[in-house]
Amino acid sequence: MATIRDVANLARVSVSTVSLVLRQPHRVSPETRERVEKAVEELQYQLNGIARDLRVRKTDTIAILLHNLSGPFYSELIRGVEEAGDALGFTTLAAGCSKNHDQGSLRLLKEGRVDGAIVLDPTISSPVLLRYARKTLPIVVLDRGLSGELQSDFITAVGSDHESGGYLAGQHLLAQGYRRFALIAGPVNSEHSHLREMGFFRALQEGAVDVTTIPVIHSDFTEQGGIRAMNMLLDHEWTAEAVFSANDEMAIGALQVLEERHFAIPKDVAVMGFDDIRLARYVTPPLSTIRQPMYELGVAAMKQLHRAMEGKTRIPGEMLPVKLVPRASTQSRITKAGDESDVS
Amino acid sequence: MATIRDVANLARVSVSTVSLVLRQPHRVSPETRERVEKAVEELQYQLNGIARDLRVRKTDTIAILLHNLSGPFYSELIRGVEEAGDALGFTTLAAGCSKNHDQGSLRLLKEGRVDGAIVLDPTISSPVLLRYARKTLPIVVLDRGLSGELQSDFITAVGSDHESGGYLAGQHLLAQGYRRFALIAGPVNSEHSHLREMGFFRALQEGAVDVTTIPVIHSDFTEQGGIRAMNMLLDHEWTAEAVFSANDEMAIGALQVLEERHFAIPKDVAVMGFDDIRLARYVTPPLSTIRQPMYELGVAAMKQLHRAMEGKTRIPGEMLPVKLVPRASTQSRITKAGDESDVS
DNA sequence: AAGAAGCGTCGAAACGTTTCGATTCATAGG
DNA sequence: CCTATGAATCGAAACGTTTCGACGCTTCTT
């Protein structure tokens, strides 16, 4: 690879002049400029970005750290970050997390290869984040509790309002006339699941439902987990009319079990999920759920990051509202069928 | 940020000694080593990866370039690359492509920020790839024709066998007893679509079907496009018993149209897709399709890249086999219903 | 006509590492 | 006792840029 020095030699100017031509062309005379440009062309010179980054001490690059790159769930969010970052002049890198944190995405943070990061991966612990966050590398965490644990001038938070989501779900089911519930929760240590559950119960209590009798099964947010949980619920003094699952994946598992065991949905049992993954609209019956504004979350995260990178320091956490998406799986027995209004 | 020099000063040794402690600890005496380690700890020293990359002229990082990061379609593939790369000691970065190629992912290649790349984005033109590929930056293109256009010592190709996929689809439909077909193809300039179509026709011809009468509509690989295409087919002297769509997205669109217009599937019309996206299994009826080995493609790509990075030069292209995934949407009228064997 | 101002160009330092060869010192071999 | 060997450490150069201050020229101002 040709270096700037090669270009300088060929064009018979100094290295600094070549750099000037590249960065601030107006500052060099037309003749010299042309000579340099010709040399650049002839040598197929390409700037070495690494050398530049070293010299100017920034990379114009940010990273998104994901649990695994493969989850379709975050795709909209990533798109939000990308587009917003793009508009601001940043290159966005996504990196999954290898088992080996040292060569995985954390290397980007640790070794200062990016100017900022957005962290989605819940397996990256807060202490680790606290260690790496610094003035020159602010971090936005997505969807972690804006709790006390992460106090740092260089860490800010964006998330959606899980509690309200749960509340909306509860309200909706009540409005549809259901009075007896079961719950498929996420892992016991999942704050999201917990918040959704809290909101759900809050709604039910407002509706004068006795929440103490509601069976709760904790599972793992996967379709398989939903299947297991639903089976357990059904096998254990089943009386519910509606089941609320802390995410769509598990709800879809539950749907399968119910169908297999010949329950009519929503006639015998209503099912409600959370997240509004793409699949939700396509399963039979289409799954009612709570929609997280993934794209907007991405944009919000990028904006916060940008402000932090500009040096702003006490940026308040941001909580974005979620939205009820009613579909056939929770259609009331009261309401006439056929008024599903879900435009694709 | 503390630099290696700060550490050296604090530990009262030279910079080179600190570097030795970090890279080849056995070469320095236990006492010094300990002093240095203490200094590192005290200063919270973190290596500056950029400086290092500059010095050693490599980054141990590769990039995957995607059309947009958000497509769930490639997730398995990415996982394949990641895991394989991980095992080899590389950090994998994924980057979508911004409108502005200069600050988007191509910057990674152009400015030498990675040691290799895997390109999935069909919108990155071959000339561009030819320009950036070099000894120090080999590129693996995925799923482009292994055609003549991309002759370079530093570009290799991996893809799946689209033609055979089309052939399998045709064979399957014939075996199920269908004799009259319609085709929803991809964009006219899509080589994939073209190959799938060729294979499909080859099978039909072997089955003595007159392929010249088969209506073909070109669309854009999206669900909406599938809807439009299916409507056009139906509105135009419809006689087919089975429709083959060049990908699942369009097939799913077609499914919706058929249902809306009260065709029974597969009784009145069979539908077959291509790709086996996650959704395929969940739509009603479940969609028969051709499965591309996405994960394996990723692994194969990473392996090729690795060999290229080691200097190997004329690596032959690799074409991975695809697999028929029969589901209910093409169930024969002859076969008894109920023998669907699709274990999740 | 003398000084100021501006333009175009350049040399050198700096960014933070790694690594090569040199230097010092202690120990072993003869 | 002298030299060869090896270990521990170091200084300096190099990686490829950007940028600051300086220098020489021309042109303008008064």
From TrEMBL, chains A, B:
Pfam families: LacI, Peripla_BP_3. The keyword Metal-binding does not apply. InterPro entries: HTH_LacI (IPR000843), LacI/GalR-like_sensor (IPR046335), Lambda_DNA-bd_dom_sf (IPR010982), Peripla_BP_I (IPR028082). Keywords: DNA-binding, Transcription, Transcription regulation. The keyword Transcription applies. One of its GO terms (molecular function) is DNA-binding transcription factor activity. It comes from the Bacteria. Residues 2-56 form the HTH lacI-type domain. This is LacI family transcriptional regulator. It comes from Sulfobacillus benefaciens.
